[in-house]
Each structure stands twice: as structure tokens, then as C-alpha cells.
Known about the structure:
- The complex is a heterodimer.
- By secondary structure, chain A is α/β, with parallel strands linked by helices.
- In chain A, 56% of the residues lie in helices and 14% in strands.
- Chain A folds into 2 domains: 3-84 and 123-155 and 220-323, Rossmann fold, CATH 3.40.50.300; 87-118, no CATH class.
- Chain B has 4 helices and no strands.
- Chain B has helices at residues 10-46, 57-67, 70-80, 84-88.
Amino acid sequence: MSLKTIFEQNPNRRYxxxxxxxxxxxxxxxxxxxxxxxxxxxxxxxFSVDPQASLTDIFQRDIFGKGPVEIMPNLFAQEIxxxxxxxxxxxxxxxxxxxxxxxxxxxxxxxxxxxxxxxEPAMEESAIFDEVVDIVVGGKYDYYIYDLVPxxxxxxxxxxxxxxxxxxxxxxxxxxxxxxxxxxxxxxxRDKETEEDKILRELQDIKxxxxxSSGILTDKKKTAFFFVIVPEEMIIIDTKKAAGLFAKxxxxxxxxxxxxxIPPELARQNIPDYLRNRLEMQKGYLSxxxxxxxxxxLTRVLxxxxxxxxxxxxxxxxxxxxxxxA
Amino acid sequence: MIEEExxxxxxxxxxxxxxxxxxxxxxxxxxxxxxxxxxxxxxxTMGDLLGIPILPPYYSLRLLPYVVPQISTWKRRMLREKDLxxxxx
Lengths: 326, 89
């Protein structure tokens, strides 16, 4: 099955993700898919969840932290500025404290906590994770293309969702129990009403956001997840492992795309041994890929003579992804 | 707690007496339990403050404004309590 037929047969899959190890072409394929869909007349947003995003480089436009930027008609790209987001978020928290308690100065202890929390290693990922909810809930686009982080991080991203979810469940439960005790006391003392638990409401909202974000990642009807691989031993082994882990998290894997394949017809030309050896090596691994992933291998993309940056090259890449035979 | 709601005066007095006899202790106990749970809750969400990172600081921050007043009493209690679960018993 080709990539094109997958898109044609599953018009409800509106969340498209490319995963794989670093540097294999996730961003390239995200951009090319976005380009192709936009050309088909769909309104597309391609956005990066990677703190080290490279959409700016591939589109050759500075879009970092600028919200959705129109690259061409129907095609929008967005890179989340996690640092900026965290700063705004910290300020929001400070402002809330000022408003709630009518203080000018945030108590030192609290201020220290706010600053320390922002320095946590998971903070950037969490901030992006949270922003994604706003992006996809907005519903302004036909397609959302996630330019994902490298595999390890993506797994972290997924597991974060389930860990968050459990954590929130537990403390929501504790909070509810607390509310019961509060009510008992209120009834005993014949207070009119218990004060509404704002924390509980806040927790429920957090839970909603987490569930929305992780729900999309695991929704078989609406989401398509593609693995990007190259014909090399380590990549094949790692991808196999990752695919197993992703399956555990119920990520709907829609297929594999092999990138960086050296054009086989070169073998008929007079080429140096170096290149011939690489061709031989790839041949072996390509058949291993076919054995391992079978019919789930959607297409092989040939190595280009230059890197993929700018719309012209993205267009060529889109053609080789969707245009030709697979 | 079976008195009528409408008649003030005598019944109001009776209500207070009844509350003092039966309800007050229970209310106090409920509030005390709730207080302990409140501190347990802060520990879980704001553990980093004591150097115990428990979980996602991103969302902890969202809860921070609500617990600002409790934080200093909470820290004192954490140092005082021998075992947190004692407080819940």
C-alpha cells in the first residue's frame, strides 16, 4: 500500500505523526506531507513539538515562537517557543497569586519555588505538551502534522501522558475525599455552603488537557503514526524496539517509510568501491526491512543529491513520497 | 440534629447546645482530618519545596496560588510530625 492510498482511504485521520530516530528525516517528511496535503486543497498546520525544532530551517523562514505562520496558501507552520511559554506561564502564576492575596511582592519562598520549578528538565516538554492541547483543540485546520521529537523523547512524551494521568487521578481522589470531610464539618456546624473547591476544578481541567493530548496520540480513527527508518542495522534494531514500546502505549502505527535509499540503478554505472559497498550494504538491510516490517513498509525514498530545504526541494520530496509508484 | 428550622429563639439555643454536645467534636475531628489531608496534598503536589520532587512541576505550578497561605504551616508540620500517616489515623 502506498502512502497516498493510506491518506485516501482514511480521510478521518487528521493527526499525522512521523517518528523515528534523530536525523532520519522526520521534519522533511512532515514538511513534504504538509505540502502535499495543502496542494490537495486541505488546510494544514505542521508544528513541531521538539524544543530543538527545525521547521524554520526546512522552510527557510524564521517561524520560531511566532505562532502559526502561513508558508503558502493552506500551509501553516508553527514552532513552539517553550522558553517563552514557560516565562509567560510563570508570570501568570505570579499574577494569580498577586490577585488572590492582594500582595505586590511574591513571598520569597514562593518565588524561589516558581523559579526552581521552571528549571526542571521536564519543564520544556511539559510546556510544549500543554501548548499542543491549545493547538489541536482550536480545530482551525483540516490536518495537524506533528513534527515529533526523536524516539526516546517521544516515548517519554507518551509515558508522561500516562504518568500524569495516574497522578492526577490519585490527587483528584484525595481532593474529593477532603471535600467530603469539609462537608461533614460544614453540616455539623450548619454552615450554609461549603466553599467550592477551586483546586479540584483546576485538577479536573488539568486532567482534561492531558487526556485530550494523549487521547489524540492513541486514537486509531483520527491518528496516523509513521515510522521513518533508513537501511542501517542500528536503526532497524532500534525501530523494532520502539515499535514494540509504542504499541504498548496503543499508538496506531500506520506504516514505515524507508528514507535515504541510494538509487539502485547507480550499480550499473562505473562507481567507486566506496559507493558500491554502501549499495550492497543497503541492499541487505532493505531486504531485512521488508522481512521485518513486511507490507507495512509503505515506500522507499531515494537519497537526493542535495539536502531538503526550501519549498522547491520540499515539493520534490512530496512527489517522491506521494507521486510515484510505491 | 432534629430541630425545626423556622422557629428562632428557643430552638436556636437548643441547636447550639446540641451542637456543643454532639456535633462540635465531630466537626473538629472532620476539620482536623481535612487539615492533615490538606498537608498531604501539598506534599504530593509541592514536594519540591522540601526537596522531594514528587511529580510534574508544570502542573504543580498551576495549583501553587491556592496553597500559598498553607505553605509555611505545612513546612512546620512536616518537621514536627513523626509519621505522616499518624496524622491520618
